[in-house]
Structure formats: structure tokens, C-alpha cells
Amino acid sequence: MAGTLDGDLRASAATRPEQTAVVARGKRLTYAELDERVGQLARTLRALGVVRGDRVAVIMRNSADAAVAIYAILRAGAAFVPLNPTAKEEKLGYLLAHCEAVAAICEPEVAERVEAVGERLESFRHVLRAGAPVPADVSDAPFAEVLHVDLASIIYTSGSTGVPKGVVFLHRNMDFVAGSIVEYLGLHGEDRILCVLPLSHTYGLYHLIMAVRVGATLVLEHGMTYPGNIVDALERERITVMPGVPTVWQVLISLDGLAERALPDLRLLTNAGAALSVAQVRAMHRTFSHAVIFSMYGQTECKRVCFLAPDQIETRPDSVGFAIPGTEVWIEAEDGSEAEPGEVGELIIRGDHVMQGYWRDPEATSRKLMPGRFPGDRVLRSGDLFRRDEEGYLYFVGRTDDIIKTRGEKVAPKEVEEILYAYEGVNEAAVTGTPDDRLGEAVIAHVSAAAGVELDAKDLRRHCAQHLEDFMVPTHVVLHDDLPKTDNGKLDRLTLSAHATRREDN
Fold this sequence. Notes:
This protein is of the alpha/beta class.
């Protein structure tokens, strides 16, 4: 069991049986109870014919049942495939067919939809409703022997193309990166982690894996629809660690009176998914005065890449620091050489956290993975542009696909967004490019205002013109009530790009 995810659960259940493992929707499970329920569901899966290497989908919102399902699939020797329960039938059918899932564990509310989709699939055989009683005749079903080189999960990511790709991870990949993050964050068994991020995406998912690894308590919430509930949970559960993305932090730092709440237990905030602006970092320090902030960068294909230590965030708030423990990164210039300090190039990633490839997609895999510097080595092309300073600190410049080419120049959206966030009253900002016959691409700024604030698009353009080079100044500023989000809380740039022709500053 060494190096397997279920091995971590068995260890925590043995050493901390009475410790609360998961809190969700008023339900609490200790590690002993979680381990017992995982064993029961794993036996059910085995009795239904699920074998080592099979894929089983988990189609649930954040809940204790979702945690049980993930570890039961692993204990049965299968690989879990986390899917968003709000996915429409067409997409759900595509994903289940693509990974050749044999079964799904889902919320009762979506079971009929999953069954209807499953009837059309050749490999699909069973739908299990979360929380349903375990059949009495499965108690003798044997568990599978699981090795650290076995398939653990396929996690789907749309990337920039919108076409879902299944990222393949072995137990050793996920075990390694969870251990690396635990090490640099200093997580331990007395931590209480509040997760509003969906378990169907890696950022949320790994907080379950890391909590189980150290025997900590994971408190699960359903996103940020009701921010007052999140504040109540921070106090009630005496939360010590909270992960988030910029949209989560923006909601919280905008709440009146939150900075006056003591929250003495909250010691650690983490950010990934997108870069924080300098203004957001400063506002987080004011709002959560007892907590330190880890700014991090990663992508689904390897989970985490680098982090900035909290003692550096005031002096270099726009940096994402150094590679995580046990890994290596470098920046590759256009000619294939290693970039010099200050030179922009693609970030290359090496380590045991790198995916095995994309499921059933050798062409996409070959574009993302390439031979490394050593015999038999493979490294990951991030597709993201970075630079490093003289001290080696890394700085995210932009995603290759996001770079806007205008007037013969290249514009990194993040640079323009930083200036927009510095304008008083801006709540959210995103910059995209749209085809333009004269410019090549026009720079479009999408902005929403803080509560009670009215913004003027022309004033925002003048503000940008005061702080940016001419070619970087947005051609148009589009004012929104709210910026669209993906289901994992990131700003939805694809949707914004599609609507970039709606201009409100003419």
C-alpha cells in the first residue's frame, strides 16, 4: 500500500480514528467512520464486477458522500473520474464514453440523468446513488491489491480549446505532489481546512487528499453563492487553512465588517488558479490580519508547479516563487536555450507529479510531453510564458493562448489587469483580445464594479493610458454587472472573448 492514496486513509484511520475527517452539510465523519464506509462501498463495487484499472465516475457536489466515493473506488482498485454534476447530458455522455467508465456514483438528484446517458454507452453498467444502503451480501467481496504505479484518476480539463482532455495520473503522481504541497505549506493533523472549491477539480480535490494524508479535518462548502455561510464556517469550525482563487478572495475582501472579525485560528491562505493582483494581496492582508498568504501556480497536468513563501509576498507580490520540493523547472527561450533573467519564455516542468499523458489522445500528449535532458526522462511543456529575476524568482507573464498581438506588439493580459485593479472601485477585471482588421487584435477590458460604485469606461481608459504603453491601453472597456465564471471559480475568458464585440464606451 506504500505510495497509494488509500494507504493514507488506512494510516489516518489507524492512528487518529476519533479525529473528525470530513464536515459537510451538517454531517460529520471521523476517520474510523470514513474508513468503514469506504470499505463497505468498495466491497459493493467489487461485487458489481468493478476490477483493477476500471474507471468509475464520481458525479457529486462537495459532500461527505463524495469523499467516501473517491476512496472507495481507489480501494476497489479502480480509478476515479470526478465530473461536475451540473454537466449537461451531451457533455456527460461524451466524458463517460471517452474514459470508458463502467459505473458512476452520483447524487440521487442526477441519478436518472446519468442512467439515461449510461444506457447509450457500451462500457457503462451501473449507477450507484450516494448514501444508499450497502447490500448485505457483499461483506465477503475481496479488496484489490493496489500498487503505486496503478491508475488512480482521470481528471478532465478543457484547457484553452474547450475540448475536454482526460489527464491521467498514477497513485505515485498524486501521492508525490500531495506530499510536496503538505511539506511546503506545513499542514498537520490539527489543521481544519475549509474548501469551497469543487472536488471535481484538482485544487479542491487535493485538499481532500492532503487532509487525509495528515489526518486533518476537511470542511466542505458549496462554493461562494452565500458568502455569509463561509464566514460563519470560518468561525464555527475554527478554520486554520483556506484555499481560494482570486474570485473567491475578491468576494470575501469586499464584505463589510469581515476585517473586524477576529478569526484567530486562521493561519494560512493559499491562492492558485489565477494570479492575484497586487491590490488583492494588500486587501487580503488587511482583511485576514492573522493569516499568511501562499501565492501558487500550477495546472491540471501536474497539479502544482511553484509557490511563493509568505515572507516574500510584500516585496514581490507578482511572483510565484520557486519550484515545489522535489521538482525542477526552467524557462525555455524561443531558440530552445534556457532563458536569461528577464527574458520571457515557456516554463518547462520536471518531476514525479507530471501526468502520464492524455487519455486516448497520443497526439495531444506528444505536444505536451517531450523528452527531457536525461535518458528516459519526460518533461511537461506548460504552454505558459514566464520570466525570472536575477535571484531566480519566477513571474507568470501569460498563457501562450492568451497573449494579445496588437500593432505588431505582444500584450500580456495580466499587466493590463494589474492596472485596472489599482483603480478604486474595480471589483473584477479581465483582458481579452478580439480580431481587428486594423490592429490585428484589439485589447478589450472587461470590468465589474464593487458594490455601490459606478464606473465610467472612459475614465478607466484614461487611467490605463496614464500607466501603460500606448499599444497596451484597451481599445474598449466593457462594463459588466458580474464577470462570468467557470464551474471551478475562474474567470471565464472564453465566454468573455466570445462577447468582446459588445462595447460600452463608444
